[in-house]
Amino acid sequence: MSMINQMDIEEFDAEWITLIMSARKMGLSMEDIRAFLRSPFQPKKYAHNTTENDPCMSP
């Protein structure tokens, strides 16, 4: 079962709306935003919140 509740979803939705509106005010088209979100250069999501594979955290 998901740990995200309705209030979290509403908060995320409000953040996304703010981000999209900011991007639109900067002159980005919806297609520009979609292309950015689909970009293969986006950071990868990791299953675990560890620093063992993070090159910035290496000694």
Automatic annotation (TrEMBL):
PROSITE patterns (UniProt xref): SIN
Pfam families: SinI (PF08671)
Cross-referenced InterPro entries: SinR/SinI_dimer_dom, SinR/SinI_dimer_dom_sf
Residue ranges annotated for the Sin domain, each copy included: 3-41
GO molecular function list: protein dimerization activity
GO biological processes: regulation of DNA-templated transcription
Protein's name according to its UniProt entry: Sin domain-containing protein
Protein's organism: Paenibacillus pectinilyticus
Source taxonomy: Bacteria, Bacillati, Bacillota, Bacilli, Bacillales
